[in-house]
Amino acid sequence: MSPLRVLLAEDHAVVREGTREILERDPGIAVVGEAADGAVVVSLAARLRPDVVLLDLALPVLNGIAATRQIRAQPCAPRVLILSAYDDEDYVLAAIDAGASGYLLKTAHAGEVVAAIAAVARGELVFHPTVARYLIARAQRTEQREGLTPRELEVLRQAARGNRTADIAVHLSVSTRTVEAEFTRIFTKLGVSTRSEAIVQAAARGWVSYEREPPIP
Prior knowledge:
Elements: E1 4-9, H1 13-24, E2 29-35, H2 38-48, E3 52-55, H3 64-72, E4 79-84, H4 89-98, E5 102-105, H5 110-121, E6 126-127, H6 129-146, H7 150-160, H8 165-172, H9 176-190, H10 195-204
Parallel strand pairs: 1-2, 1-3, 3-4, 4-5, 5-6
């Protein structure tokens, strides 16, 4: 099999040279190019068509997150594997959202980096354990906030129409206490504390409309 073609982006020359030496010890990897800034790596990715771009986030001219997004938007885009000193949740999630297939910290051993390159080239996702915890936490937050039941959604829709608790209770054939309990659960799931905030959140997701309808008779 032909070696995997890897494009390396790292602004510190010593780190870049050391990383290249590590990668080239493996016969299954060929480093086809190097870049010291984000704009150059985007250009090289389009011209060299590597299999994987090994990318630092702290790049000058164009940061690693923006570079990742532009690389992944290219035709026949290569996979992007982040190798960074940053384990901040915001950086991590932004890189994943930009299209990175993997995220390793610079504390990783040489063998881990080589194995990760091969894995993302196969279409797998590879994350440092800290990064994986961030992704799991975000998935849990999303599930908690967006997992509204059909009745909770209907309560929100009625509230968005300007209907009061008593009107909603009549519409759903339940007690006002039940409607109030539904609102409490909705507030918890959406991370808000008022009906107005809940309606804004729901409207932003396209669940309800602000258009007021005639109150329930």
